[in-house]
Amino acid sequence: MTQRLRFDSLLGLFPLVLLLGAWQLLGDPESPFFPAPSSWWPALFKLGQGDKIIPAILDTVRTFGVGLLGATVLGVALGLSIGVSRTVGRAVGPTFEFARALPPAAIVPVASLLLGFDETMKVVVVVLAALWPILLNTSSGVQELNPVLLDTARSLRLSRRRTLFGVLVPSVMPAIVLGVRVATPIALVITLLVEYLTAVNGLGALVGDAQRTFQPAKVYALIVITGVLSLVVNSLVRSVEEAVRRRRVGERR
Amino acid sequence: MLLALAVLWEVLVRFKVAEIQFLPAPSEIATAAQDALAGGELLGRIAHTLGVTILGWGIASTIGVALGLLLGLSPLAYRYSMTSFEVTRAIPPITFVPAALLVFGFSLKMELVLVIYGGIWPVLINTIGGVRSIAPELRDVGRMLRLSRLETIRKVVFPAALPAILVGLRLALSLCLVLAIVAEMVGNPAGIGNGLISARQALQPALMFVYVIVAGLLGVALNAGLRASARALLPGNVVKDVAAP
User: Fold this and answer.
1) Does some domain include residue B216?
2) How far is B6 from chain A (nearest CA, A)?
3) Cα(B196)–Cα(A116) distance, rounded to whole angstroms?
4) Would the CB atoms of B79 and A211 count as touching at under 8 Å?
5) Is residue B135 helix, strand or coil?
6) Alpha carbon of B201: minimum distance to chain A alpha carbons (Å)
7) Of A10, A101, A208, Cβ closest to residue B98
């Protein structure tokens, strides 16, 4: 079965291979718009020799990682308090509705003006953008909990702390993980966006630089790299989600 | 809450409790908004961004639904192309901004292409998912009634997949707005994105905040508009997912 699946997904690559093949045959390596795929690798190689590509990838991954982590901590904390207390939920509801609709791209110029062009600014923007799916999933996860669960904790006279970490957090874990999975691609996109717009560091800045200096082969090569990066990150998050789900199934038995 | 925050912000900036460089007080932002409105500049920019977002979203939705129906209905097409779509989708649309700039230059075309490209994905993926999760019995009904292929799609498949499609449409709409603003910030010199950047370069932080707030309001308005039209045009049971806040 898995053998068959793997074969099927290889078959599915057919149009992409066809497209790239046609591009290679018809494309001109010197074209300012669509340089042939074979010219992408030398461009990439040159970047590697200049010791640019690895630090850029590391910068991007670091901003992305710290941003996603910050968004998770903040989102879970806010989501839990909104989910538990109706008053808090009502008070911050409209503010959050607005903040959520704010296109993250619009925050970038403001953040860079107020905070300057540095790593902190990058992380702040990523946190602000990736926060919402985690926050909303957590708060609705709490609201959908069986009330008996919290009543049980109360009748057992568990301390607030034990209720929080022993009952609340474990039971909304799947909702949190789902939120993180939704937030992951957002965090990556926003990381690249901030880098591209402010040219601080990272892959986004590198792509922007290649475009401004008219090096199309480099641009396409970097697009491929970001694609690979995002595939890796997504499959990583998916396997974490799998692991959490498996543990829960084990608990129920 | 929003009001309380604004008052707190005003007080803090006024009395220099929190002195952050370039942070304008809400009253300054309000004045800047009035000026921008009076000059007509703000409305023109809003109209541009809104127009491109909705036009691009419409085209992206049409392509996404059509392609999604094809891939959802034909196992052959699905088998021979799905991985390609998965791989391409993984590349963040933002990274295509530089490529689009190289190919189309600083133009409206570049902005539109970017918005359409980004908007297709959520619609496509949700349409495929919706079509493939239709109960096989429903298709059997279509066969039993001897509906033609086109009729089956129109009367059975499309209505059954509609809730999933609507979710995709809603995701795509907010994405289209973001991409339009990004394209305006770096490429096409028009609309809200460009307004933001020019205000920044002219060191007019109050005006910049006006554009940020307008961008947020636009997001809220587009979402509310989509919800309202879905509720007005479609039967109640379909709208549930879209109308949920």
Assistant:
1) yes
2) 11
3) 16
4) no
5) coil
6) 10
7) A208
B220 contacts in A (CB within 8 Å)?
97-98, 101
Q: Shortest Cα distance from B147 to chain A (angstroms)?
A: 31
The whole model's pTM is what?
0.79
Q: Cβ separation of B79 and A107 shorter than 8 Å?
A: no
State both tokens at A244.
């959490």
Residue A156 CB burial class (10 angstroms; 0-12, 13-18, ≥19) = exposed
Up-side HSE of residue A149: CA atoms within 13 Å toward CB?
A: 15
Which residue shows structure tokens 């107020």?
A: A114
Please tell me the total count of domains within chain B.
1
- Rounded-to-integer distance, Cα B63 and Cα B43, Å: 30
Listed in sequence order, the residues at least 6 apart from B94 whose beta carbon sits closer than 8 Å to its beta carbon are A189, A192, A193, A196, A204, B182
CATH of the domain at B191: 1.10.3720.10
- Residue B235 in any domain: the answer is yes
Q: How many helices (H) and strands (E) does chain B have?
A: 12, 0
Q: Enumerate residues 6+ apart whose C-beta is below 8 A from A79.
A: A134, A135, A136, A137, A138, A139, A141, A142, A176, A179
Whether B25 has its CB under 8 Å from any CB of chain A: the answer is no
Nearest to A206 by CA among A46, A29, A27: A46
Identify the DSSP state of B147: -
Q: Which residues of B touch A130 (CB under 8 A)?
A: none
| Residue B228 to residue A230: CA distance in whole angstroms | 35
Contacts of A185 in chain B (CB under 8 A): 92
User: Domain range holding B225?
Assistant: 26-243
Assembly ipTM: 0.73
CATH code linked to domain A50-252: 1.10.3720.10
pLDDT in tens, B65-93: 998 888 888 777 777 777 777 777 777 77
CB A113 within 8 A of CB B200: yes
Residues of chain B contacting residue A102, judged by C-beta atoms under 8 Å apart: 212, 215-216, 219
The terminus-to-terminus CA distance of chain B in angstroms comes to 19
CB A237 within 8 Å of CB A184? yes
Report CB contact under 8 Å: A94, B196.
no
pLDDT tens-digit profile of A85-136?
Answer: 777 777 777 777 777 777 777 888 888 777 777 788 888 888 988 888 888 8
